[in-house]
Each structure stands twice: as structure tokens, then as C-alpha cells.
């Protein structure tokens, strides 16, 4: 397929970029982290959304190569920031196929070592789909990653398989409330119920809870009174180029 071919060429020619979306703490408005999101501008097609090419790359298996690049680049960026005095944890989205690679843990460890980045500055976002594939092997892998000191979070929480048993068993530190549940706040009674339940459950389990896709003050205020203290969304900032991100975090520079 054409897009698949172009994607391979784009990686080979270094045409992928990462943008970083700030994660903000309630009250202080401090930026406490950055989610790395891949961007691809093709000379002919223009900007192509990862919502379009990541699913295709998952089908063809090419997502493993893309994922390796994303991991290396995000870790390198965090290391560059650290070298300039900006200690900023970066979160990377991990595809199921990538997580299933036998050498995934080694790949992560090597990326951290090569960049000399403390593992505590890397977060891996796993979806429920990733977690439910092969739970025993997945569990071993998560413990190995946690032992490295990497933070593990569940992305799009609430949209996947609804087995809650894994929250108890898996070494997860953080839940990301999917933006589909944030969208209807505070008016939609279902979203209110789901958001409240996720925050309360997360807190009861000692997990950090961050809300994604926060676009309005009313959404933020509802989530804040529900006990959610970390936010990501257009209300705070869109995904930014590394230099824009740095400006946003350190306006004086
Ligand atoms: O940033 P945007 O809203 O366009 O992303 C669309 C989708 O692509 C989201 O589901 C997001 O998780 C996914 N995505 C963005 N960057 C990456 C990446 O680096 N790796 C993977 N696996 N998915 C990504
Ligand atoms: O699947 P994942 O949660 O990784 O997807 C993150 C995606 O959400 C990114 O593509 C990012 O561009 C997008 N995003 C970030 N903030 C907002 C927001 O406030 N509203 C909407 N609609 N999308 C957002
Ligand atoms: Mn994500
Ligand atoms: Na999400």
C-alpha cells in the first residue's frame, strides 16, 4: 500500500518529528510532564495524522520500527532538556506489537543508557489492549520495566477491556482518563459517573490520575472537585514543538 511505503521512506529519511503536550498540575499550573506525540509532514500530502498511519503501521508491523524511533527520540529530548537544567518527564505511547517484542525491555534500557537519562524521567503509556494480550508475559515485562525505574501508565483508561483485577496486579503508577469521558463533563450524567468512579478508584489504589482532552474550564473544575489534580488538554496547551514546549515551561528564556 502506498501510505505504508511512504511511511517507511519517511522514517528512513528522518521526516518524523515529535511534539510534546504539557501535563499540568492543578493549582500551581506547573508543567509536570510531557506526552510525546508523533507528527509526519509529507511534502506531497501535507500533515498526516497518527490516527491515520499508526493503525496501518500496527497492521503491517512497521509500528515496531516507528516505536523504536519514538522511544529513542523522546529519551534523547528529555536528556537534552536535562542537560540544560530542565528536568521534564516524558511519556511515550507504546503499541501492543512493540510491547510484545521479546527484547522490548532491553530496547528501553538501551535507549536510557545511550542517552544517559534517569529512568524516572521516562513514562510508558500502555493501553488496556496492550495489557490484556498475554497477561503472564506482560506482567513479567512490566515488572522488569518498573525495576528499571520507568513509570507505567494506562492510556485511554476505561475504553478497553473492563477487567479491573489487573489494576491490583500490575505495577502501574498512573491512570489516564480517556478524553471520551471528559468531553461530556459536567453536563452528561454518564461521564460524571464514570469520571468520578475512575478518580476514586485510582486514588483508593494509590495511583496518580490524569485527565486527558481537557478543553474547558468547566471540565477542569469538575475534575478538580472530583479529586483529579493533573490535566492534559487544549485548555492548557496543544502538543508543541520542543522549542515551543521549552518556551511554555521557561518563558524567561
Ligand atoms: O496526537 P494525535 O491526537 O494526532 O494522535 C492520534 C493518535 O495517535 C492517538 O491515539 C495517539 O495515542 C496516537 N499516537 C500519537 N503518537 C504516537 C506514537 O508515538 N506512538 C503510538 N503508538 N501512537 C501514537
Ligand atoms: O490516544 P492518546 O491518549 O495517546 O491520544 C492523545 C491525542 O489526543 C493526541 O493526538 C492529542 O493531539 C489529542 N489531544 C490532546 N489534547 C486534546 C484535547 O484537549 N482535545 C482533543 N480533542 N484532543 C486532544
Ligand atoms: Mn497517550
Ligand atoms: Na487517550
UniProtKB/TrEMBL annotation:
Domain EAL: 1-253
Extent of the signal sequence: none
Transmembrane segments: none
Protein name: Bifunctional diguanylate cyclase/phosphodiesterase
Organism in which the protein naturally occurs: Pelomonas baiyunensis
Residues of the full protein shown: 443 to 695 of 711
Amino acid at each position: 500500500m502506498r501510505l505504508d511505503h511512504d511511511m517507511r521512506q519517511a522514517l528512513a529519511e528522518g521526516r518524523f518529528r515529535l511534539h510534546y503536550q504539557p501535563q499540568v498540575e492543578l493549582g500551581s499550573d506547573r508543567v509536570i510532564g510531557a506526552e510525546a506525540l508523533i507528527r509526519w509532514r509529507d511534502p506531497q500530502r501535507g500533515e498526516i495524522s497518527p490516527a491515520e498511519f499508526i493503525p496501518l503501521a500496527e497492521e503491517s508491523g512497521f509500528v515496531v520500527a516507528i516505536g523504536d524511533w519514538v522511544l529513542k527520540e523522546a529519551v534523547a529530548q528529555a536528556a537534552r532538556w536535562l542537560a540544560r537544567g530542565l528536568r521534564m518527564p516524558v511519556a511515550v505511547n507504546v503499541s501492543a506489537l512493540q510491547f510484545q517484542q521479546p527484547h522490548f525491555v532491553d530496547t528501553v534500557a538501551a535507549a536510557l543508557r545511550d542517552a544517559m537519562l534517569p529512568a524516572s524521567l521516562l513514562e510508558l503509556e500502555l493501553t488496556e489492549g496492550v495489557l490484556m494480550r498475554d497477561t503472564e508475559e506482560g506482567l513479567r515485562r512490566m515488572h522488569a520495566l518498573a525495576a528499571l525505574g520507568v513509570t507505567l501508565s494506562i492510556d485511554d483508561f476505561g475504553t478497553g477491556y473492563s477487567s479491573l483485577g489487573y489494576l491490583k496486579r500490575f505495577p502501574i503508577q498512573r491512570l489516564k482518563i480517556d478524553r471520551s469521558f471528559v468531553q461530556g463533563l459536567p453536563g452528561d450524567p454518564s461521564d460524571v459517573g464514570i469520571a468520578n468512579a475512575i478518580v476514586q478508584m485510582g486514588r483508593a489504589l494509590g495511583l496518580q490520575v490524569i485527565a486527558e482532552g481537557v478543553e474547558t474550564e468547566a471540565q477542569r473544575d469538575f475534575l478538580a472537585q472530583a479529586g483529579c489534580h493533573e490535566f492534559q488538554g487544549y485548555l492548557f496547551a496543544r502538543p508543541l514543538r520542543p522549542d515551543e514546549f521549552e518556551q511554555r515551561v521557561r518563558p524567561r528564556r
